[in-house]
Known about the structure:
- The chain has nine helices and seven strands, in the order ααααααβαββαββαββ.
- By secondary structure, the protein is α+β, with helices and mostly antiparallel strands.
- The strands form two sheets. It has a five-stranded mixed beta sheet, with helices on one face. A two-stranded antiparallel ribbon has the order 1-3.
Amino acid sequence: MQWKKLRDWFPVGWKETLITVGILLLASACCSLLHGLDASGSYASMVFVLAVMCVARVTTGYLYGIIASFVGVVATNYIFTYPYGALNFTIAGYPLTFCVMLAVSIITSALTTRAKAHERLKAETEKEIMRANLLRAISHDIRTPLTSILGATSAVLEGGDRVSPEKQRELLTQVQEEARWLINMVENLLSITRMNNENALLSKQPEVVEEVVGGAVQKFRSRYPNVCITIRPSEEFAVASMDATLMEQVLINIMENAVLHGKNTTRITLTLTQDDQWVSVAVEDDGGGVDPKIIHKILDDSFSQIREERSDTKRNMGIGLSVCRSIIKAHGGAIAVGNTEQGAEFTVTLPRDQEEEYPDD
Length: 361
């Protein structure tokens, strides 16, 4: 335990070593420039006090700030104070200079360490709150379809011959739809876990965006055959580096939200646009749009706790949008939401593959 505490106070790393060396070299260069204006060297101690404070502020722990204090005092004495090229600590003021630099280093390092610890604790607390909200939302959303499945299967098993074949087919169709939704929920949760894993690597490859959109639309049509889907491609094929499976899931989630949360959504239009750096896919529906009261919160991490009050059977769209936001962020892109005259519009933007090459016809 003590060893771990000492390691936290005096960490060693290549990045912070290079930062420390760079700041000290910059301070030395500034002193060299100022030497022509003031040969007395009185400026050197102030420059290196500033350098020590900067080192202590941008590094972790106390080690590099203390090292910078010693280097600053030696450099001030040996290089920038007469007699040049010789150490002479008998000159008045140098013990005070060293003490000041050391005090600046320790105080700044302590404040920086405490601030980073506070930020780390705050991030962990926010993560726990988000996890609790997510579990609460999942519990609510999973309970509703499971209750429906249990009721439908009980009616079929216990009703026997009293349940007509048409009614049995209706109940089994309901079970099938609820089971599909549960599978989709599990896929979303697995995607959230994958996106939140810092060591996870996306399997990104150059993909034709139109093909990914077409694949998502085909899967969506199998679940919602009554919704009219229109694709408006861009003038030229666009290629973006992406995980095609995850991006299909993003588009499917957005389209499912349009159906589940829109007011009788009957039409969805996907419009592709591009410029020299970005490729965008706008998903527009005719479902009446997003409530203006929540539109600015709908893409927040905490949105999973926001609920539709008009029906308990409504699915929570916070889970799907959390997945979308995480996946797009991992791709270096962005997602935006707005309202049109007829409904809502979600726009997914991804960086265009700069190395794309089109084959000659």
